[in-house]
Amino acid sequence: MALSAPGGLLGAEAIRELDGILNVDKPAGLSSHDVVYRVRKIIGQHKVGHAGTLDPLATGVLLLCLGQATRVSQYLMAGAKTYRATIRLGITTDTYDNEGRVTGQCAAEGVSRSQVEQVLQSFVGSLEQTPPMYSALKHGGTPLYRLARRGETVFRPPRLVEIRAVRLLTWASPDLDIEVDCSKGTYIRSLAHEVGQRLGCGGHLAALTRTASGPFRLSEAVSLERLAEAFARGEGAQLLLPTDAALQDVPAAIVDEATAAAISFGQRVTLQVQTPAPLCRGYTTDGHLLALLQHEQEGLWRPYKVFPRRSGKGPTKVERTCR
After folding, report:
1. Which of 76, 71, 68, 1 is nearest to 32 (CA)?
2. pLDDT tens-digit profile of 305-320?
3. What is the mean pLDDT of the chain?
4. Sign of the torsion angle spanned by Cα atoms 88, 92, 94, 99
5. CATH, domain 247-306, list 2.40.100.10, 2.30.130.10, 3.40.50.300, 1.20.272.10
6. The pLDDT value given to residue 122
7. CA 26, CA 138: separation in Å to the nearest integer?
């Protein structure tokens, strides 16, 4: 049964399932799952998932996948990220952010701007980062944060991440505002903790905003309030991006009717794709994203993910240019 939008209004689109991607501006105080729950209620469908998490403390770009777009969430999560963060020096916490228990305090008045800039630049490049205990990663099926709350600490293998740039935006002791361009899987909380350690006074993450995830920008994100209002007016689908917005780095090919039918039945097909790649987007002649295909051998492609046509179920493609 369809769920009502906030205020008791039933959005006109809540009675049908939508496919697409939502770029949501996550507010502080909500977990990523909380946002998913609210969006499910707003649009009246269960098949909604997030592509990469943000801590409750954090705000900014949170990508949600609706309907068939949930099948491409892995490509959204793989994109590079940009964050704006505030690090507060002189105080360390067990969670590495301002929501944790204070574990140490040290005067930070002696830290200079030049020291801060030097330490920040020392993190640029590829490095191994140990995930914090207070994280959603699982150990033996149990999220690490649950173990941490029980006072348990387990070994977390370090992960290779890449920090492409760190820019110091403002410095007003004991706070420094930075902008970070980094790979997926980078913990800005851990970065804040490590910056404090290298400066010799400790530190923690005081604020965090994700300003970009892949090509998706905060300036284009929609608030939950605006989303609810749009769906209540029956205009919510206009805020959705098409499923193939997650696949713009994948080469594309347009297929004829016979080939499209073969792909729909899971059969291997012969395609000429200009750019060599392990995957290819397959479109029908009218622009419908039919499938994501996997390359097997010269000219031969196997259907990897097939997206059945569902008339009127969301936005159309972003681009179908063959390349």
Report:
1. 76
2. 999 887 555 554 444 4
3. 89
4. negative
5. 2.30.130.10
6. 97
7. 24
> Does domain 6-78+218-242 sit in CATH 1.10.10.60?
no
What is the pTM (predicted TM-score) of this model? 0.87
Does 247-306 match 6-78+218-242 at the fold level? no
Q: ω before 174 within 30° of 0 (cis)? A: yes
Options 25, 55, 97, 181, the catalytic residue? 55
**Assigned CATH class of 81-213:** alpha beta
Active-site residue 55, yes or no?
yes
Domains of the chain, by residue range, sit at: 6-78+218-242, 81-213, 247-306
Contact by Cβ (8 Å): 208, 59: yes
- Provide, rounded to the nearest whole percent, the portion of the chain with pLDDT above 90: 77
Banded pLDDT at 276 (limits 50, 70, 90): confident
**Each residue of 82-114: pLDDT tens digit?**
999 999 999 999 999 999 999 999 999 999 999
| pLDDT reported for residue 68 | 94
Residue with tokens 């920008």: 217
* Contacting residues for 225 by C-beta, under 8 A, at least 6 apart: none
DSSP letters, 62-115, are EEEEEGGGGGGHHHHHTS-EEEEEEEEETEEETTSBTTS-EEEE---TT--HHH
What is the distance between the alpha carbons of residues 115 and 271, in angstroms, rounded to a whole number? Answer: 56
